[in-house]
Amino acid sequence: MKVSVITLGCKVNQYESQAMLSQLTSAGFCACDTEEESDVVLINSCTVTAMSDHKVRQTLHRARRKNPDAVIVLTGCMPQAFPEAAEELHDADIVLGNSNRSSLLPDILKYLSSRQRIVDIVPHEKAAGFEAMNVSRFYERTRAFIKIEDGCNRFCSYCIIPYARGRVRSKPMDELKKEIGEIAANGYREVVLTGINLSAYGQEIGMHLCDAVEAACAPKSIARVRLGSLEPEQLSEDVIARLSRQKKLCAQFHLSLQSGCDETLRRMNRHYNTDEYRTIVKNLRAAFQNAAITTDIMVGFPGETEEEFQKSLDFAKEIGFAKVHVFAYSRRPGTKANDAPGQITQAVKEQRSRRMIEVTQKTKEDFFTRQIGLTEPVLFERECEKGVYEGYTENYTPVKTHSGESLSGRIVPVKITQALNDFCIGER
Ligand code: SF4
């Protein structure tokens, strides 16, 4: 039987899709690239914004249209957070949440024998442990993602994730070391540690993110370790000092900001203010040479006045981010902010997004310009056009260079000679 996987959403979803695919291929299924040729189509969904839900519906319809006979499985955060709505999506033959991925294979086999629609969404249990998942190979990827943490206990007022993902659960250290060993043995030079609230790793098992970083840096053949999105307030001076002792840790920190205005941060139930954020950035830049600070900024949060937005804009300019994901606030049913007064109009959200993107595109270009003249090791990912290879430096600067030989999968020192809008040019 042929199976194809469509992944929507974050690095954790990408990891889980890989793990589910491995679960099925080790049971005799064959991985397939297209819905048309598949017997089973697996859609791993995201529900972080209203647009994500819209994409889930679109993806389902398209898969059903392209392959009316396929067994379509809808899984992931959307059914877990909104089970009733997911049950209504009849293009899916099997609807599975994200708390019991081990049911995937039994549910598919059950459906194939009964042809009875299956809705198998199990609520997250408070005391649930980390669902064992192991990935040793990533198809068509140069770097390997490792999911080490799931769930979140934060309940930021706009966020649906704690409802979709449950409470913090961490991968036991022995499982993590085994997985890193297998990934190293399969020739990956870079691993990316990821989680739903990565900074919370280990808090319920007496471990800490630093322990996971040290474990990931241990294998000789692993050259680089990168961290997924982080919550600022976990990065104390001690933690930064301990992390800086790991020479393989990439100097790129995605430090989720959300707003550069303290009043807005308070209404978001974020656990830091702009002064604390500024200090963490200063400490990271002092501890890691040529560090890149990247982030997420939300515009149009309920009650955000023009004055508050201006503060957020000025703060983004002051910090000088290397890259910013700008997105407009999206109402999520069940979250506190969904019912908050002062909802912002779509027109104002779009206008503020444009202004924030304009400012942060400039800070990105300024960061790229500061790379000119530096010689940096680049992990090349692919040949993007004939004789031109693209990859990333340790601080995640995208670099393109000419080469007569293949550079894919190799780490090669490159001198940065030019900075363009979205990448740099380098010479060997
Ligand atoms: S820290 Fe906040 S924004 Fe991040 S997943 Fe948890 S609740 Fe959502």
From TrEMBL:
SUPFAM superfamilies: Radical SAM enzymes. It catalyses: N(6)-L-threonylcarbamoyladenosine(37) in tRNA + (sulfur carrier)-SH + AH2 + 2 S-adenosyl-L-methionine = 2-methylsulfanyl-N(6)-L-threonylcarbamoyladenosine(37) in tRNA + (sulfur carrier)-H + 5'-deoxyadenosine + L-methionine + A + S-adenosyl-L-homocysteine + 2 H(+). Residues 369-428 form the TRAM domain. Residues 138-366 form the Radical SAM core domain. CDD domains: Radical_SAM. Residues 1-114 form the MTTase N-terminal domain. The keyword Transport does not apply. It is an enzyme of class 2 (transferase). Its EC number is 2.8.4.5. Its cofactor is [4Fe-4S] cluster. This is tRNA (N(6)-L-threonylcarbamoyladenosine(37)-C(2))-methylthiotransferase. It comes from Caproiciproducens galactitolivorans. The lineage of its organism: Bacteria, Bacillati, Bacillota, Clostridia, Eubacteriales. The gene is mtaB.
